[in-house]
Inverse folding.
């Protein structure tokens, strides 16, 4: 399954997904600076199942009924690996349990 990490997500997160996932960053794909609507469209065309982001406003900027790919919003105090890594199992579970859902919100529990 192909997953795309938004620019707002610590790129180190990609290395912590199991091997059955192909995880790329927006920067790796050469899509830095692309607006969210266009990013979702080209990600879907490139075969990405989901865009993983920490941008909590993205759900209000997009027509959720017409999303070409899944948006996963990671809600965490900081977008650094120590906060994001513990959320990976829930990301995987959500994708597997609700494959047709277009917006998934995951709340982190790590505190400092």
């Amino acid at each position: 399954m192909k997953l795309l990490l938004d620019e707002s997500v610590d790129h180190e997160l990609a290395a912590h997904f199991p091997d059955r996932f192909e995880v790329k960053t927006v920067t790796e794909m050469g899509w830095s600076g692309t607006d969210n609507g266009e990013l979702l469209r080209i990600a879907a065309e490139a075969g990405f199942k989901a865009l993983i982001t920490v941008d909590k406003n993205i759900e209000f900027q997009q027509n959720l009924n017409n999303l070409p790919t899944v948006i996963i919003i990671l809600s965490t105090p900081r977008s650094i690996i120590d906060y994001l890594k513990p959320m990976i199992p829930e990301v995987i579970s959500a994708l597997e349990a609700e494959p047709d859902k277009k917006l998934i919100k995951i709340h982190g529990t790590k505190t400092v």
